[in-house]
Amino acid sequence: MTTDITVPSEGPARSPRGAWYTSLFTWLIVAIIAGIVLGALWPDAGSALKPLADGFIKLIKMLIAPIIFCTVVLGIAHVGDLKSVGRIGVKALIYFEVVTTFALIFGLAVGNIVKPGSGFSIDPQTLATGADAVAKSTGNGELPHTVEFLMNIIPTSVISAFAENELLQVLFFAVLFGLALAKLGSKVPVIVSFVDQSSHVFFLIIGWIMKLAPVGAFGAMAYIVGQYGLSSLASYGKLIACCYLAAVLFILVLAAVVRVFAGVSLWKFLRYIKDELFIALGTASTEVVLPRIMTKLTYAGCSRTTTGLVVPTGYSFNLDGATLYLSICVLFLAQALGVNLSLGEQLTAVLVLMLTSKGMAGVPGSSFLALSATVTAIGHGSIPVAAVALLLGADRIMDSMRVSVNLLGNCVATFVVANWEGQLDKERMRLVLDGRPVPPLEDIDAMSGQAEVQAEEEAMPEVAAQDVAKG
């Protein structure tokens, strides 16, 4: 994938920037700090603001399924190479399995060195009500078994996949639909044009909704601090410090991976997605930024096909932050109860988590369910399943760690797979990450045959403004 980019001889000028007080990034920081202060000073008032966060998240979620459908269908239909789609899927799954397995082992290594559970000295007899507390937190749910998880990728009906917002099911149908359009080629220009125009509408709406991001982040932070309090930071200080240390070190590993295998500077990319990163941190959700992340990855040179396939799939198969957290928590529980897990028991934990972590997305209390399954599989009588309840007070505080690593992990995966498949425009990527102007992304309209700006830019008003300034 290449794009002809003409740059003035004196070097490209920096893209125009608005005043700092109009920046979404500035308003997000203000909103997050205000939410923390309100939740700490007036916990009841902070807890009552949860609807602000829930409303914002629901606004985004109502458009995720159609945006994924349009992006994947158009990407496959325009490429028209059926083999390329299969290669991207296989390469993405290989990458996901390698990286998540490494994350599990990395988490165990950090947990063995830091020993976050040492000093707790928990008496197992005091955990009698722990199982009830975990059941209440998870709604008595359970993680799907491997076969069940794979079968659930196939929707009962197309309508149910969209109605229930099942991203993997929507992705599965979108791939089939896109392949069919690619096969039919010029026979179905009306359908391709309809999907294309629909994508413009959906991305435009996303651009409007994102203006409410500071309100959602304010409500989420006020609720979290008001509901759970800052006292949990002291009680679980060592575990929290261990998890965040592991996250920072793992992000450095991701930086090395994306530099070596895609030539991307992770630091520059972090500056590029700072708004989305703060929205995800503020709302404790990566789903709310999925449309904008796909937009920015495409704008930064990743092909629409690769982005559309890798990012949604990664939300279920590439939960780097969650797997890192789970492996540390297994050791935390053992150390808090004074149990010394053997190497074989730790390897058993890794094998179990390799399977359970794939079915976590969208399951309430999934981290507790995965840990319960792992403790059961280890079969160490001194670690009751009820011990998982020890993490109830700290789990929500870990959201920022999990969210940031999950988000960056999926972005890195997209760059690596795109470069692996030869669908990364490196010249465009360098210019975008340097903050320099680039031509708008263009597609050929199926009806008119004329070049038009891709729909993804509708979700980025700042990009449109830059294009106008350059024009």
TrEMBL record:
It is found in: Cell membrane. Its main location: membrane. Keywords: Cell membrane, Membrane, Symport, Transmembrane, Transmembrane helix, Transport. Pfam families: SDF. Residues 449-471 are annotated as: Disordered. GO terms for cellular component: plasma membrane. It comes from the Bacteria. It is a multi-pass membrane protein. GO terms for biological process: L-aspartate transmembrane transport. InterPro entries: Na-dicarboxylate_symporter, Na-dicarboxylate_symporter_CS, Na:dicarbo_symporter_sf. GO terms for molecular function: fumarate transmembrane transporter activity; malate:proton symporter activity; succinate transmembrane transporter activity. The chain crosses the membrane at residues 20-42, 63-80, 92-114, 170-195, 201-224, 236-262, 324-356, 368-391. This is C4-dicarboxylate transport protein DctA. It comes from Gordonia polyisoprenivorans (strain DSM 44266 / VH2).
